[in-house]
Amino acid sequence: MVVIVRPDVPQEKIDHLVRWLKDKQLVVREYQGQQQTVLGLIGDTKPVDIDMLKSLDIVESVADMTDTFKASNRKIHPDDTVIRIGPGKGPAIGGGNFALIAGPCSVESREQILFVAGEVKAAGANFLRGGAFKPRTSPYDFQGLGSEGIDLLVQAREATGLPIVTELMDHRSLELFLEKEVDIIQVGARNTQNYDLLKELGKVKSAILLKRGLAGTIKELLMSAEYIMANGNENVILCERGIRTYEYAYTRNTLDLSAVPVLKALTHLPVVVDPSHGTGRADLVPSMSLAAVAAGADGIIVEVHNDPQKALSDGAQSLTPGAFRDLALKIGKIREALQ
Amino acid sequence: MVVIVRPDVPQEKIDHLVRWLKDKQLVVREYQGQQQTVLGLIGDTKPVDIDMLKSLDIVESVADMTDTFKASNRKIHPDDTVIRIGPGKGPAIGGGNFALIAGPCSVESREQILFVAGEVKAAGANFLRGGAFKPRTSPYDFQGLGSEGIDLLVQAREATGLPIVTELMDHRSLELFLEKEVDIIQVGARNTQNYDLLKELGKVKSAILLKRGLAGTIKELLMSAEYIMANGNENVILCERGIRTYEYAYTRNTLDLSAVPVLKALTHLPVVVDPSHGTGRADLVPSMSLAAVAAGADGIIVEVHNDPQKALSDGAQSLTPGAFRDLALKIGKIREALQ
Amino acid sequence: MVVIVRPDVPQEKIDHLVRWLKDKQLVVREYQGQQQTVLGLIGDTKPVDIDMLKSLDIVESVADMTDTFKASNRKIHPDDTVIRIGPGKGPAIGGGNFALIAGPCSVESREQILFVAGEVKAAGANFLRGGAFKPRTSPYDFQGLGSEGIDLLVQAREATGLPIVTELMDHRSLELFLEKEVDIIQVGARNTQNYDLLKELGKVKSAILLKRGLAGTIKELLMSAEYIMANGNENVILCERGIRTYEYAYTRNTLDLSAVPVLKALTHLPVVVDPSHGTGRADLVPSMSLAAVAAGADGIIVEVHNDPQKALSDGAQSLTPGAFRDLALKIGKIREALQ
Amino acid sequence: MVVIVRPDVPQEKIDHLVRWLKDKQLVVREYQGQQQTVLGLIGDTKPVDIDMLKSLDIVESVADMTDTFKASNRKIHPDDTVIRIGPGKGPAIGGGNFALIAGPCSVESREQILFVAGEVKAAGANFLRGGAFKPRTSPYDFQGLGSEGIDLLVQAREATGLPIVTELMDHRSLELFLEKEVDIIQVGARNTQNYDLLKELGKVKSAILLKRGLAGTIKELLMSAEYIMANGNENVILCERGIRTYEYAYTRNTLDLSAVPVLKALTHLPVVVDPSHGTGRADLVPSMSLAAVAAGADGIIVEVHNDPQKALSDGAQSLTPGAFRDLALKIGKIREALQ
């Protein structure tokens, strides 16, 4: 249930109403927007008399919220969520702030990550991505550098000032991620519905980049965000990364760009797009990145490698630094055209 | 097999080679590009001695063409195909010429089609679409106005000068379409693999807008184009219109925009996008249209209705004339930004 | 709307009610079951006063029928449809009669079809299948023997007594099919929604084997049957033949056997299964055939070839005559066990 | 690489060869079948000279194994794996031993689980299933009784003698599962690619029932089994439970029964089928269970509830005890017919 409070109601009156609602065993999410305050009621609302609520002089209107996603629902948080990364003047995502996240699939060496970090920063990226813990389909394949990879990412952050984005596969690594102050913790497509992991991420304050499942629905993505938010962490960034379809001959996945405007309508959370995994082909990354921007994405996350042919993972879908530079320029032009 | 002819070879020498190849029971497609002449050999090339071919002084290089699509293959036709509609100064599609095709799902009445045609023309559309023969899932639903609908489209063309695009369901109607000079004959998603229909369309000269099947692969779309081209009609426009996936809760289909750059790389034929059927939702059409343009489409085909709520078919996915006008403006800006 | 008539009501009273309903512009399907008469009303039922209908002394009950499929709906035809093929003592399909349909993908020569027909008959098949008009993805591939293939099938029928099943791709061939008395006319997966073809098949009396679309839904299959039935032909056999999914590495399609019990609940029409196209692999055909029988199918249609390795089409999914003989024995045992 | 050893070679000679291969940094899986010994070499086999290997007098043949799944591959373990549950005369799965696993979706109370356990045992089940830790899409839904549920399962095991099958969601619960001696630990469809969890399960000896992912491929299922086996646990049972497709109107998932014979050909591990989740409809469970048996499954896992209408989860797909009894009888008949 959603309660819209009239403008100019004193906060103490709102607090009083919230206390009364909480006594009914409801979770109350209070959102103070630019225009007005919205109360989102989560839980069993049957004990609440809607007509009585509507008749209160501080209440403007009351609406049902039958959607199963609650905390992430735009109905109870009409404005875009803006997630600021790092203290002070760090970059932000959402509400008009665009995240250009770039870097190699896997952190491979100190030289590699420092070089790529420098290149993508020079091209205009405002975040550095890189995998240290890698979820590989085969147990016999390279599994990432692990904690050493995290250390190298931290060095690249120190060298360039770029906040870092890297994947967490298991909650036993969470302490390390917090200690190293990983700026954005990524949940990969294979763990989107690993609910125990999501619950742990709900207990921290770090920004979480939550990828859509390999063949996950839009609703499942929102419900997974809900697992994080219901446990206390509001800093969730959603990521479209391509879905599994029958069309496999020319693309690794089918990038579902319509998910961008669909999600922007349903939720206040930022939405970014991963055209690298979404297509699996470096030659398609530029056009699909531009399309993502035109579709209204709050950012893109792109694989860039110093030498794609020799990458330890996902070389076929990695841009060279030069190709990334060209792309960043075009993204700027499209963003300008859309204003 | 693809034979690249050296620049500046006199045509009579090329003709001689072509005659020799045809004697081997091969179909030879000769393409005179801006840079050079390319010969595409279709059929059983085993009787041809590749080394002998390569050694000819008029031949620059010879390459294999194992793709099953031949006539539509960019390898034997490196430049974009440009399809000019109508005599003289009619609009063109492909090679930088953008088709903005708009109009109602179904032609419903004289007033309706004339009104919508006027509106979309004023907004910048250069083609008018409208359904007269409608492939409906249920035999009990409205099946379109049939030949009367074609007549009304012709009147709208006379009134606005816009060339018309409309669907052909059965080759028994082809004579009517030719007599009325339908400018672009559409093959719908349910008939993409109706090979006998495609063969008939190969015998005419009209432009054909060929939609991808309901759950058709990119390769199947190319092979269906091949059925038309192998029978003699080169004027084929390909259309991405969304594919069937497990994600159905929020969109009617999943618009596969990556098909645009994939197709542009594989074939020289123009590629347009239908965001109306691709999403099924009017509120998603603008963002997905812009994304299609950014992805490199040669045009879009959009449903516009005077009163979407009362449309006899597909109202939920139809734009109002006003929304279409806004969209056309933004498309112009994106196209400019991409230059 | 469905009207259940009380038992033992004289026919003239029913006729009177039917006339009255037809006057309301409704199509009335009258079904005389073993227990009682059921009237199915198709069209706009708003002008009919339900309470009045219920109060009639000849009416036992009235129920809504919101399903979009009407003529094929089991609600207005509670017993299984049994389709008898050929005059007199020909085999039947449905209502406990099992169709074991076997033969080559393509008719290739007189020797081949006569040999395979003899083999499958000896093994227990009661129908012969064989393709004469072949819908091939590529225009450059073998397209079937055409009318010559039909003649060869007729010869095989004469030699073995087996009724023949073969695919019609275009209504221009329908006259030939009728003249040659093709026993069951197959509509292939690419033409399942070729509505103009379905309408033509509604005007004849031949049995129609209607395949599910390449990625068709169960409802679309029923709606396509509806196109045939609404035009007058009740002899429709539905065929599950595998659907297109993301799982392509090991099977050509994903055979959806749950479609069998789903369809048997929704419709009175017989349902057969094609495990050859459903899997694309001869080694999987036996187990999936047995599974189809256990799932309740009214028959299976299986590709059998004298020399699968040399088949002009679909060799990889064709059984040898010996493998088919083993399968037929096991099918008999499973059918016995289920009784 | 696969090395087939000649029959009657003394073990010490085999040991010698194995030591030599391990010195090349290879993992060597030695399988002593009924007919002969097979060595499976996992890792980088480039340093091994194939011709030299072939020339050894103890070697019969050497074959490539390019498949990415190794330990689960039937090529290096030609006979079916038989997994015996519990000490002494406990039931087994695989190699002709059929597992009839039944019980409620969720353990709800002592009375419920004891009642259902008694009923399914009486009907012929040889395993009891029940969920204690429940992976629910919504954080606001019933999440299972947790460790209390495990205790109740243990009581039901004591009362009936049936080994128990229940889902593990997080490795932090593994100690509890081991302490309570859960007989078969289930990995649910959402955790099929939770590799850190799989690695932990590789370190124990319990039998693992590994479900195919929500939209997982057959190969991914095998690779996940590989994660468990590569870490030391060979007791893996694979489970087909329906895949996500575009067909959602009538079934919750599309049960891919062809996965059964496909898997039986590729791997030596037992394969069971879950028709409850596979269809989501109790009325389809019997026919699809019989189909699974006919397709060659080594068992089925079925939801049975004392009062499906009131079940806390998955009521719509749960059989009543009576319906399960009928099904068990029919399964017996089909199994007999197939012998």
Q: What does this 3D model show about the protein?
A:
4 copies of one chain form a homotetramer. Chain A is of the alpha/beta class. In chain A, 34% of the residues lie in helices and 17% in strands. Chain A is built from 11 helices and 14 strands. In chain A, the strands form 3 sheets. The first copy, chain A, has an 8-stranded parallel barrel, surrounded by 5 helices. In chain A, strand 11, helix 7 and strand 12 form a beta-alpha-beta unit. In chain A, helix 3 packs parallel to helix 4, helix 3 packs parallel to helix 11 and helix 6 crosses helix 7. The radius of gyration of chain A is 21 Å and the shape is elongated. The model of chain A has no long low-confidence stretch (mean pLDDT 95).
Quick synopsis:
Chain A has 339 residues and is of the alpha/beta class. Chain A is built from 11 helices and 14 strands.
